[in-house]
Design a protein that fits this description.
The structure holds two protein chains of two kinds. By secondary structure, chain A is of the alpha/beta class. Helix content of chain A is about 25%, strand content about 25%. Chain A contains 17 helices and 34 strands. The radius of gyration of chain B is 20 Å and the shape is globular. Chain B is built from ten helices and eight strands. Chain B is α/β, with parallel strands linked by helices. Chain B folds into two domains: about 140 residues, no CATH class; about 110 residues, no CATH class. In chain B, strands 1, 2, 3, 6, 7 and 8 form a six-stranded mixed β-sheet that branches. A two-stranded antiparallel ribbon of chain B has the order 4-5. In chain B, helix 8 crosses helix 10. Chain B starts with a helix and ends in a 27-residue tail after the last helix. The chains are: A alpha/beta, B alpha/beta.
């Protein structure tokens, strides 16, 4: 075998601490090394040409490049090798930058280490085998999880590209949080007015199969070939028969037993309901927990008034299976529970703000409903407790966010903007009202955002106070907001009629369990992790699973929408080919010696391991062994390390190659 | 004993099981494993303080599995197992080596066994594992025999020895193990008797590349004994058969027990005690001790 060695100076990144010419000279003396050279920038065009020319001139079979991390330029050098006729997997990278020059300052020692690293890579390349990419067929259908604005956008974009979409939403209607908002910053256009046309479009789109009141139960398979099990919860209404006339809702005698979660518990809803008038689909749901029929077996008022005979008390949850090639996760966010009795045991509440105790201390979404023309007060700003118009409102930002002591360190990003908007809306509706905003910093990065905040301050006379609020208590029908004005350096007290808390955004309920179902990683808060924070922001680390919207981190509407379109385009890019090329760095089981303990199956983070029956000559199963699905395997090597009998080999990193590397050290 | 024989005989006569794996007496203080397929031979079966072997090791053997294949049917296999041997069976079921439905467990109320053949059964000669044993009644069984008796009292010398080794300075401890492992002749008796060493090809038999030097060189001795201990960490049920089988008297069960103590301290896990608890290797819990991560 003829090996070529190429040592890169990386400008001065490597050569300032590693004597590159000496490394090249030493490498030249190793058995099998036909050619060895150093160069200032091996990744540059002249550098790559140096490699290609050497391959031709010296008839090389394999090359070793001593350069930066393989994460950076492995692909560059492999492609160069391919264009010169060498298999891309006959290329080894020794990381002389991150693993050597950047972390050492002694030139002599670093050079010796670089030589050792090169020697290991040379020993490994001698045992490398040419590998060919794996081809997998693709099912050209997308599953979108979550029917908020991100899910809607992703579904529409993919469907408009001509691919089928299955859109799964756990609530009875799509629309998500955006359908609850009053007006949107920085343009103050009505949220529902811009959203509902999109919702209708989803409903009418021939390529979109909408599954509301449904949840993803199981995800099997791999990129291009996922098999998804979806549970469609019983609505107790026959969707085919229901015309959406709403008679059952009007006549339902249960009026005040269940809070209306769409109205953020500021109103009640009947036992049979649609979340809001523009709901898609406009088919009600019967809430078993409050419906009299499920308690006593009597009532049945809805049955009497329904002329379509659509009420079906006996309806059961149904299970549906969908084959999809890509998954877009857009499960969104929820607001952190502020009160002490917080259901999110992970975080501490804000008992000191009296949320849950004082009815006029509300959160941002509740204010949205109060300000919304379709809300419980028909858009008039009124206190939930007595319906009086508040003359003074205190808005408090960063409730939960940026507060290590309560458990959330991140900035929820949208609160500065929506608080400014809410204060502005309030000032527009209550001309003699005063709006105070307690803030830590104003973060208004975004097109027209800073201008919007300035407008709130300058035109709408919203009073900004920089400081945190320590306590809120009631006194003579007023809420005394005690805080500090850190710019003036003095304590402040506001006697507000109403307090709005801009609470932190946290991942939607069940985000973590969904992540485990799909097999995607999440951070300590439960936000899904992107594959690369800068260069792969809409992909998860699981191939074929993309992220959109606030399930990845706090986001406003335009960001969610652009991310959704990006995720959709990722799916469309995937579908541009009929088969999928996968890196051949995958694990393979030696079936002859596999003992079938299936520890590999237990540790595989990607669900790539299956049970395979091994049959004798008569077709009778005589043992079970592990089988690794090459389409799913990500080549992480966990199974290889776990296998007690060393029956699993990872292509490109097999036992022999690793052993040779260690032995060369 | 009569009940045991009667039960085994019935199983075979009714065709419920293909074979009964049990013990037969060879002298006053010695038994041997026996695999019985003929109902007439069941009279040889015994159970007493000298039934030392962990018969679970036979369950994974291909030739024994073959016995169960009658025409197209797969018959059950009956095994006489001490309560501690049942732990091994549980571990084997959890590792997919045997199916609970195909194993008929005949177990006993156990009050301990002798440390080896030929010794009188009393507190001084009690097997080390019996001193701290908490399962005198098997956790899983299909038939249970034997009367409940008191286990002789004995002091836990093995634990004292572990504490002693733990307290040694680093280099002294290394020297201790070096001298112990130096005795290893690579006969692999420890592997042969271990019910959990069921791999068709052990890593030590892997030659390309040769991870473990097979000669009785110090490097290979260390590699073998350390890998053996690691491969059994969180899996070993503490039957102690390796210790009894080792012709060089390497204190293998001390190592195994130390590893089991670690598993218990760090993850509250004891191998082979429950079919419902996931195995230590291959299961993940957010509450797991994460201090081991750097």
């Amino acid at each position: 075998m003829k090996i070529g060695v190429f040592i890169c100076h990386c400008g001065e990144n490597i050569s300032s601490t590693v004597d590159c010419p000496r490394v090249a000279d030493v490498c030249r003396t190793y058995t099998g090394v036909e050619y060895s050279v150093d160069y200032k920038y091996m990744c540059s065009d002249p550098g790559q040409n140096l490699i290609k020319d050497a391959i031709h001139k010296y008839n090389l079979d394999a090359i070793v490049v001593g350069s930066c991390s393989p994460h950076m330029h492995e692909r560059t050098f492999r492609n160069a090798a391919v264009s010169a006729g060498i298999n891309p997997f006959m290329v080894e990278i020794a990381n002389l930058r991150e693993h050597c020059s950047w972390v050492h300052d002694n030139i002599e020692a670093a050079t010796r280490k670089a030589i050792e690293l090169m020697r290991m890579a040379i020993e490994k390349v001698k045992r490398d085998k040419p590998l060919t990419k794996i081809k997998v067929p693709i099912t050209k259908r997308v599953l979108v999880i979550g029917g908020g604005i991100a899910g809607i956008q992703a579904a529409l974009d993919t469907a408009n590209a001509g691919y089928e979409v299955v859109l799964v939403e756990k609530e009875p209607s799509i629309g998500g949080h955006m359908s609850q908002l009053s007006e949107t910053f920085p343009t103050l256009d009505c949220s529902q007015c811009i959203l509902t046309p999109r919702m209708v479009e989803v409903h009418q789109h021939p390529k979109i199969k909408l599954m509301t009141y449904s949840e993803v139960e199981r995800v099997e398979g791999f990129i291009g070939n996922f098999k998804v099990t979806i549970k469609k919860k019983a609505r107790h209404i026959n969707e085919d028969k229901c015309s959406g006339c709403g008679m059952c809702i009007t006549k339902c005698p249960i009026k005040k037993k269940a809070y209306n979660s769409f109205e953020e518990d500021l109103a009640f809803r009947p036992a049979v309901y649609v979340p809001f008038p523009q709901a898609i689909p406009n088919i009600p749901v019967i809430d078993e927990t409050v419906c009299t029929y499920y308690k006593t077996g009597k009532c049945g008022m809805c049955v009497k008034v329904c002329d379509r005979e659509a009420i079906d008390f006996g309806q059961k949850d149904t299970i549906h299976v969908a084959d999809v090639g890509a998954i877009i996760v857009a499960t969104g966010f929820k607001l952190y529970n502020i009160d002490k009795k917080s259901a999110d045991s992970k975080y501490k509440g804000y008992g000191e703000y009296g949320y849950g105790k004082y009815r006029d201390v509300i959160d941002g979404l509740q204010f949205e409903r109060i300000a919304s023309a379709s809300g419980p007060t028909s858009g008039e700003i009124k206190r939930p407790s007595d319906g009086r118009v508040p003359k003074k409102i205190a808005f408090i930002q960063c409730v939960g966010s940026r507060d290590d002591s309560k458990g959330i360190s991140y900035c929820s990003k949208i609160c500065c903007m929506y608080t400014a908007k809410q204060a502005m809306l309030y000032r527009h509706k209550v001309h003699d009202g005063e709006a105070y905003i307690f803030y830590m910093d104003i973060r208004a990065g975004g097109k027209m955002y800073e201008e919007f905040v300035r407008r709130a301050i300058e035109e709408d006379k919203v009073k900004y106070i920089r400081g945190r609020v320590s306590r809120i208590y009631e006194e003579d029908g007023k809420y005394i907001v005690k805080g500090e004005d850190t710019l003036a350096g003095m304590p402040v007290e506001i006697d507000a009629d109403m307090v709005v808390l801009a609470t932190a955004m946290i991942p939607q309920d069940g985000a973590e369990s969904l992540a485990r179902t799909i097999g995607i990683p999440y951070d300590k808060y439960g936000f899904f992790n992107e594959a690369h924070p800068k260069l792969r922001p809409v992909e998860s680390t699981t191939a074929g699973v993309f992220l959109a919207g606030a399930c990845q981190s706090p986001k406003d509407i335009p960001e969610s929408v652009s991310m959704a379109s990006a995720a959709a385009s990722k799916a469309i890019i995937l579908f541009a080919n009929d088969t999928l090329e996968r890196e051949p760095v995958v694990a393979k089981v030696n079936e002859d010696i596999c003992a079938g303990c299936f520890y590999c199956m237990k540790v595989c983070p990607f669900g790539a391991v299956e049970v395979k029956d091994v049959k004798d000559i008569n077709g009778i199963v005589y043992k079970e062994v592990a089988y690794i699905n090459q389409g799913v395997c990500q080549g992480c090597g966990t199974c290889t390390a776990t296998c007690l009998s060393k029956s699993i080999e990872l292509a490109g990193f097999n036992n022999e190659e690793i052993f040779a590397e260690i032995a060369a050290l | 004993m009569k009940e045991l024989i009667k039960h085994a005989r019935e199983l075979l006569e009714n065709g419920e099981v293909a074979a009964v794996i049990g013990y037969r007496q060879v002298s006053a203080k010695r038994t041997k494993p026996v695999i019985i397929t003929d109902p007439e031979e069941t009279s040889a079966l015994v159970f007493n303080e000298y039934c030392l072997n962990n018969l679970a090791v036979y369950l994974t053997k291909a030739r024994i599995k073959l016995l169960c294949k009658k025409n197209d049917k797969v018959l059950k296999l009956a095994i006489t197992a001490k309560p501690c041997d049942v732990h091994s069976i549980v571990a084997l079921i959890q590792e997919n080596q045997i199916d609970r439905d195909t194993i008929h467990i005949i177990s006993f109320n156990c009050h301990g066994v002798a440390k080896d053949f030929g010794f009188d059964f009393n507190g001084d000669n009690l097997a080390s594992k019996c001193i701290t044993c908490e399962t005198h009644k098997p956790l899983y069984y299909d038939a249970l025999f034997g009367e409940v008796k008191e286990t002789p009292q004995a002091s836990d010398t093995a634990l004292a020895r572990i504490k002693e080794i733990e307290s040694m300075p680093h280099n002294e401890r290394f020297e201790f193990f070096k001298s112990e492992f130096d005795k290893c002749i690579k006969c692999y008796a420890c592997r042969a008797v271990c019910p959990l060493c069921y791999c068709q090809r052990c890593i030590t038999d892997k030659t390309i590349p040769c991870w473990i030097e097979t000669s009785s060189h110090q490097r290979g001795n260390f590699a073998w004994n350390v890998i053996r201990a690691f491969h059994l960490s969180g899996r070993c049920t503490g039957c102690g058969e390796c210790d009894r089988a080792c012709p060089a008297d390497i204190p293998l069960s001390l190592i195994n027990r130390k590893m089991s103590m670690e598993a218990k301290n760090l993850f509250s896990f004891v191998s082979g005690r429950s079919l419902e608890t996931p195995t230590l290797v291959g299961s993940y819990n957010e509450k797991d001790n994460n201090e081991l991560f750097m």
